Amino acid sequence: MTLGAVFEVIGKxxxxxxxxxxxxxxxxxxxxxxxxxxxxxxxxRAMESALVALMRDRIYQSSKYYLEQGKISSGEMEVLDxxxxxxxxxxxxxxxxxxxxxxxxxxxxxxxxx
Length: 114
Fold this sequence. Notes:
single chain, mainly alpha, two-stranded parallel sheet, 2 strands, 81% helix, rod-shaped
């Protein structure tokens, strides 16, 4: 095949070749994007799970302390309630609810405003 014949073939089919190459590049980029997205979703789920576990532990440890004291201040109760609400909003289960129900029955000490 002569050089002129090669250029003639290229001239006839350059658009199909260009579109084929472009399509291949788009598919490769799409695969990379979806792989990165799947990895990020997996990381996000692991972080959320860890955060829920930390909140559960904090609720448990704080509640245990206040139950041993037999009382809780209004400010401490507000903080603990806020943490518990966030825990529930993130999908926390009833483990912390049982202990929070016990804490809510404690004597609440009203803190003086400074």
